[in-house]
Amino acid sequence: MKKINLLFTAFIAWVFLFTGCKKNELVLTYDANGGTGNMPTQSFESGVAQALLPNAFLCDGYWFKGWNTAPDGSDQKYANQQIIAIKSDMTLYAQWRPLSETFFAIFYANGGTGSMENQAFEEWVLQALNANEFTHTGYMFTGWNTKADGSGNSYRDKQQVRLSANLGLYAQWINPAGGGEPCPGIPTVKDIDGNTYNTVQIGSQCWMRENLKTTKYATGENILLVTNSYVWYDISEGAMCYYNNDASNAHIYGALYNGYTIDDGDLCPEGWHVPTNDEWNILVEELGGAIAGYKMKTAYDWEGEYGYNGNGSNESGFSAFPAGACSGFDGGFFNMRYQTYFWSSTSSDWRKIMRGLSSNSKELWSSGLENNYGFSVRCIKD
Questions:
Q1: Res 101: pLDDT
Q2: Domain match, 122 and 219 both
Q3: What is the C-alpha separation between 208 and 19, in angstroms, rounded?
Q4: Which among 247, 210, 196 is positioned nearest to 225, based on CA atoms?
Q5: 201 and 235 inside one domain
Q6: Residue 214: what pLDDT?
Q7: Which of 27, 56, 104, 261 could bridge to 238 as Cys pair (CB 3.0-4.6 Å)?
Q8: N- to C-terminal Cα separation, the chain
Q9: Structural domain span for residue 195
Q10: Alpha-carbon gap, residue 160 to 129, rounded angstroms
Q11: More confident site: 100 or 162
């Protein structure tokens, strides 16, 4: 009897040893899910973490992006060779993504009219956005933005882009006439040459809405017109020029004057003057500080630079065009369509303070430069 009990005990132990261990051994199966190749099953001990086997499946025209417990990728995701623990048998399905996926730029009129087809992009392939085809009566198209209110990422018309996801683009519109109202009782002003300038009231200040283009001082004296670059940078008296020595540029951009004309004191029409630096600062404060330049620049004609849309909103009505300048070093012309520069009547040491607008900035910035530079002049009412 004792011998039988011993044999029974040994049998129970054997059953426990083999069947008990088998219960804790779990099997993880890998499924190619449309791919090709073979992978062995993987044994796991319940609750004990270990790394998944490296993927050995292939799928023509696709790259492997990981595993999922559902064939359609809708359940638990796992990375290749991720360390995991399982508590029951499991099958992992390979997940595949096309080597080159197609994404779309989706265009929205955002208040405009017309239609544009979604534009297909091959993933990461550089391609130009389609040209805008929307219109908006009384408004000018200035580019695209990822948000309707313009607070997202900006894109120029026909900008070269790469896509790795669908991109929604909202047309951005602006009133090209700008904002602002004429100065009360002074809608226009004439210079001594008979040129008529519109005015704009900005806060407490009354400004000319256009750059000066007179060829005479208010006294009637002619301003020296210089067309020779060597004469320009060597001169030490009041002088003027036109960008690229082309007088037709004055129609939009005005003339360029050296700093000596400011010192002469009679450049602006009677009752008007070249603004001091303090008066420029008042304008900046009135227009919101760091974004003043954006509100001063015209809504067109500015070339984009370094990814910026160079145009402004012109909501102030100041209507600053990118007039460029004449160099004080060599008499050459530079930066039309990218920058504009305005003289102030304030000097600092041996330099005169000027104010500038750039296509890649929303500020009205300042610097000090010598009198032999040629900059634009914007007059302000006394």
A1: 86
A2: no
A3: 97
A4: 247
A5: yes
A6: 98
A7: 261
A8: 127
A9: 188-381
A10: 6
A11: 162
Domain boundary among 146, 174, 202: 174
At residue 11, does pLDDT exceed 60?
no
Tokens of 367: 């610097």
Contact 324, 369 (CB under 8 A): no
| pLDDT at residue number 16 | 44
Q: Tokens for 102?
A: 């197609």
Ramachandran region of residue 220, left (φ > 0), alpha (ψ -120 to 50) or beta?
left
- 223 & 107 share domain: no
Encoded amino acid at 309, one letter: N
Can you tell me whether residue 318 is helix, strand or coil? coil
136-151: pLDDT as tens digits: 988 878 789 999 988 7
Q: Which of 282, 186, 18 minimizes the C-alpha distance to 10? A: 18
The answer as to whether 11 is a domain residue is no
Which of these, 282, 323, 319, 307, lies nearest to 361 by C-alpha position? 307
pLDDT band per the 50, 70, 90 thresholds, residue 308? low
Same structural domain for residues 64 and 120? no
Would the pLDDT of 356 be above 60?
Answer: yes
pLDDT band with cut points at 50, 70 and 90 for residue 199: very high
- Minimal CA–CA distance to 52: which of 95, 25, 82? 82
Q: What predicted TM-score, i.e. pTM, was given to this entire model?
A: 0.61
DSSP sequence for 202-247: ETTEEEESS----SB-TTSPBPEE---HHHHHH--S-EEE-GGG-G
The answer to whether 107 and 145 are in contact (CB under 8 A) is no
Question: Is 244 inside a domain boundary?
Answer: yes
CA separation for the pair 276, 264 (Å, rounded): 15
Computed over every residue of the chain, the mean pLDDT equals 91
Q: How far apart are CA 192 and CA 113, in angstroms?
A: 46
In angstroms, the CA 194 to CA 177 distance is 24
Average confidence (pLDDT) over 65-72: 97
Minimal CA–CA distance to 106: which of 44, 52, 148, 51? Answer: 148
pLDDT at residue 7 above 70? no
Average pLDDT over residues 107-122: 96
* Per-residue pLDDT at 141: 84
The 3-state secondary structure of 82-135, one letter per residue: CEECCCCCEEEEEEEEECCCEEEEEEECCCCECCCCCEEEECCCCEECCCCCCE
